[in-house]
Design a protein that fits this description.
The complex is a heterodimer of chains A (276) and B (300). With 276 residues, chain A is mostly helical. Chain A has helices at residues 7-35, 39-42, 57-65, 68-99, 105-116, 124-133, 140-163, 168-176, 181-192, 194-210, 213-218, 226-234, 241-261, 263-270. Chain A has a single domain, classed as MetI-like (MetI-like fold, Orthogonal Bundle), CATH 1.10.3720.10. In chain B, helix 3 runs antiparallel to helix 12. The chains are: A mainly alpha (276), B mainly alpha (300). Chain A: Keywords: Cell membrane, Membrane, Transmembrane, Transmembrane helix, Transport.
Chain lengths: 276, 300
């Protein structure tokens, strides 16, 4: 949209746009700032900014008093594990849908995606009972399975949109050269679809990292990831805002850093690969 | 040998789809069937010593009870409010995106700021907003006090609590929708916009007739993720108010959790009945929506 814009106008829109960005970013900023204040300073009214007492003590205390490393490790295992398992199931399925489409492939896809809109509670009781019976409650393995099931429709859908962009002739050529099916997928399709697979992986790691519904229901202590950790931290010690801010900041920091460095992949992930 | 590889070729798609479909049956089809069945029973979730199911068949009694349960009606109404207000994120995100889709200095850093709300866990979002609403020192509380002279503890007022929680949820949702549209706007064909401009299209007409049709994929995803977001009300409600005050901010998913799995009781059948109602509402909504999208897709 090449239209001549006067410098004055440009300055104005820049200003307005940055204000919007600031408002959107503000709650996060406020939490991070609060995590470095003393408890008294955190609840001061009017809010203190320049005159606040700054401290690192909250972080030290949260680190010592809680099992942060264990929760962190649980989060890593659960989000990575569920995503990798999901990819292993979804890559073949998406291959079939993208390269050997049947008459009903589109319907099947739409139907799968629509179940993502299904409220999780509709399936909660039977799955909870099933997990109970199988002894999967409060285990990391159980959560890996649950979150994989939950995100599978999105993984399949995203991979499908990426795979569809790869010209079938290239796979055909590989086939002509005598590549078997497994080789075709492993050595031809996968490398070509790597950016797509990376976006899918990133988005699903983030979704799994942030998942609270299933983690609250299916864990108590042993396998609880960071989302459950903050939720529990807030209950008994609800009045310690600065410490809670520190705990929250520590819980989201890994994902913020990951997100910052992978924005480009993330954008495609966020749009489920449907918007380029 | 040739026929074997041919066989392999034609069977492979089915073999490849099978694990995915199996997972799907485990996660969707079977539990929904189970929920439907359970909703006809009165059951405390326990098995007897032989490991047998101890539920008692009660027919539609659970549903009759729901009908006259005020807590259920409150939750249902709240769910509708959630869904309706959440969908506002779509036009809001679109408008902000269209406004921002101009050359702005420092665009890279600037766009990054919009990612933060989305990648943050709902649990943390709930906490942050609880502090904003907190009486006396909460930022939002202070602003209200400054404007009206009278502070309002949003989360403690039955009248406002649901709206307060929804506002917290809308914050990341609007940012998300905006990212979707900003990305989509990159691909709007400039020659079409130019042609429309020569034909005298401006402002709203330009947006409605020229730009919006090209953003259809973005709109599709925006509606999908917004509906999903509205249904995630559980996270925010359980963090911010645990349904209070006096159950006024309950939503169906939270009420069901209370009935079936929390310390308030293990009424599995009753909980399942709530789930069935919620599922039914979503089916109406989803099927209409999916039907329309499917029609659009096949027309192209």
């Amino acid at each position: 949209m090449a239209r001549a814009v006067s410098p004055r106008r440009k300055t104005l829109t820049t200003l307005a746009a940055w204000s919007v960005a600031f408002i959107i970013f503000f709650p996060v900023l406020w939490m991070i700032l609060t995590s470095f204040k003393t408890e008294a300073s955190a609840v001061a009214s009017p809010p203190e900014l320049l005159g606040a007492d700054w401290t690192l003590e909250n972080y030290a205390e949260v680190w010592q008093r809680s099992d942060y490393p264990r929760f962190f490790w649980n989060s890593v295992v659960i989000s990575l594990g569920s995503t990798l398992l999901g990819l292993a199931v979804a890559i073949p399925a998406a291959w079939a849908m993208a390269f050997v489409p049947g008459k009903r492939t589109k319907d099947l896809l739409m139907w799968m995606l629509s179940t993502k809109m299904m409220p999780a509670v509709a399936v909660m009781i039977p799955l909870y009972l099933l997990f109970l019976k199988l002894g999967l409650i409060d285990t990391r393995f159980g959560l890996v399975i649950a979150l994989m099931l939950m995100n599978l429709p999105i993984i399949v859908w995203m991979l499908y949109t990426y795979f569809r962009e790869i010209p079938g002739e290239i796979l055909e050529a590989a086939r002509m050269d005598g590549a078997g099916l497994v080789k075709e997928i492993l050595y031809v399709l996968t490398p070509m679809a790597l950016p797509g697979i990376a976006s899918t992986l990133l988005l699903n790691v983030i979704l799994a990292w942030n998942e609270a519904f299933w983690t609250i229901i299916l864990t108590t202590t042993k396998a609880a990831p960071l989302s459950a950790f903050i939720a529990s931290f807030s209950a008994p010690q609800g009045l310690f805002y600065a410490k809670l801010s520190a705990a929250s900041t520590m819980a989201i920091a890994p994902i913020l850093i990951l997100g910052w460095f992978s924005q480009k992949q993330l954008v495609r992930g966020l749009t489920f690969g449907a918007v380029k | 040998m040739a026929s074997r590889s041919l066989n392999q070729r034609s069977l492979a798609p089915w073999l490849f789809l099978a694990p995915g479909l199996a997972m799907f049956i485990v996660y969707v089809i079977w539990p929904i069937g189970e929920s439907l069945l359970l909703s006809l029973y009165d059951w405390d979730g326990l098995y007897n010593r032989e490991g047998e199911f101890t539920g008692r068949f009660v027919g539609l009694a659970n549903f009759e009870e729901l009908w006259s349960d005020p807590a259920f009606v409150t939750s249902l109404v709240n769910n509708v409010i959630w869904l309706a207000l959440y969908l506002l994120a779509v036009p809001a995100g679109l408008l902000i995106a269209v406004f921002l889709n101009q050359s702005v200095r420092g665009i890279r850093l600037y766009k990054s700021l919009f990612f933060f709300p989305f990648v943050i866990s709902q649990v943390v979002v709930g906490l942050i907003f609880s502090w904003f609403y907190a009486p006396n020192f909460g930022l939002f509380y202070m602003i209200i006090e400054w404007v009206t002279g009278q502070g309002v503890a949003i989360l403690a007022e039955e009248k406002y609590v649901t709206y307060g929680i929804i506002a917290a949820g809308l914050w990341p949702q609007i940012a998300y929708v905006m990212i979707l549209y900003l990305t989509g706007l990159n691909n709007v064909a400039p020659d079409q916009v130019e042609a429309a401009r020569l034909d005298g299209a401006k402002g709203w007409r330009m947006l409605w007739y020229v730009i919006l049709p090209q953003l259809r994929p973005a709109t599709f995803i925006a509606v999908v993720v917004t509906v999903i977001g509205a249904l995630r009300s559980f996270d925010l409600v359980s963090i911010m108010t645990t349904g209070g005050p006096f159950g006024s901010s309950r939503v169906l998913s939270f009420y069901m959790y209370e009935q079936a799995l929390s310390e308030y009781g293990y009424r599995m059948g009753y909980g399942a009945a709530i789930a069935v109602v919620l599922f039914g509402i979503m089916m109406i909504f989803i099927s209409g929506f999916i039907w329309k999208m499917w029609r659009d897709e096949t027309e192209r």
